[in-house]
Amino acid sequence: MSASQPIPEHVIDEATDWLVLLHSGEVTELQRQQFEQWKAENKQNALAIQQIERLTHGLSNLPANFQPELLVNSEQKFHSSLKRNIVFSLSGLFFLGFMASCFPWAKWQADYHTEVGEIKSVLLEDGSQLILSSNSYVNIQFSAQKRQVKLIEGEVYIQTAKDQKRHRPFIVKTQDGQVEALGTQFTVRQENSHKTKVSVYQHAVAIRADRLTETRIIQQGHRVVFDDNNISKSIVLQNDHPYWTQRLLVVEKWPLEKVLSELYRYRKGTYFLDESLKALPVSGVFSLKNTQQSLETLAYTHQLELNFYSPYLLKIKNK
């Protein structure tokens, strides 16, 4: 995108939706992380946010207890005002300096990545297979001493191949430590809470947290969560393969809030959920390929009302 080229209208719409949410006074940490992911997807998104914030300083002065419903209800008027004021004023001034300070270069430079909603299979040079979940980023670093996959963000399923010639270890590095494959199939997920989740579906893995000296072996059929200083107790898996690789979300008595959080890993935008509905137990099989259908199924099954204020902003309440 050249410095003088205007930002597309749909990007302005999305940026406006996010600003409405961020200044509502009720934004959650997960929603903030989703916003950062959206902003990092391409240069246009971040530039739209920057320019809109310059032209709408008053929005940042809203009181913290401002009702989000009022903001949502006035969104259409907000959009119209913004578009009239900025459609001809968006430019590339200060663009390079802004880019250098605000964008996650590690993600941009990743060897492999997936967009939101995408699942991708990658065959490595040693015959090992990776399947990247939605919005995931990895770097591949093979040397004479080891085979390493660095998980920058997201989740990856790994089916390792034997290193016939060199017998190099296969290691997955995360921000919390490392996971070494012991001839295995497993998933590694970088959690939003700055933790790493590991599920082992075949054989075993060895986990070493960055600040721990000992290594912990996790056997087939178990999962653990660890950070740089602690490894949780192992929990028995209920399935013998990760359902998300088949583009399915399978849940049993999950809180509705957790179900929506998982669906929105595969869907752009965010949502408001009534407090009374957060703990509502949900069981079923939902599509990760067609998240709109999954939301409609949830609404039908549990008598919910879905109010879409745009393709990227949803409010959910009881009928």
UniProtKB/TrEMBL annotation:
Q: Which residues form a coiled coil?
A: none
Q: Which GO terms describe its molecular function?
A: sigma factor antagonist activity
| Keywords carried by this UniProt record | Membrane, Transmembrane
What domain of life does the native source organism fall in?
Bacteria
Query: InterPro entries annotated for this entry?
Result: FecR, FecR_N, Ferrdict_sens_TM
Any idea where the FecR N-terminal domain is? Answer: 13-55
* A Pfam match: FecR
All copies of domain FecR protein, residue ranges: 111-205
Q: What is the lineage of its organism?
A: Bacteria, Pseudomonadati, Pseudomonadota, Gammaproteobacteria, Moraxellales
- What is the recorded name of this protein? Transmembrane sensor
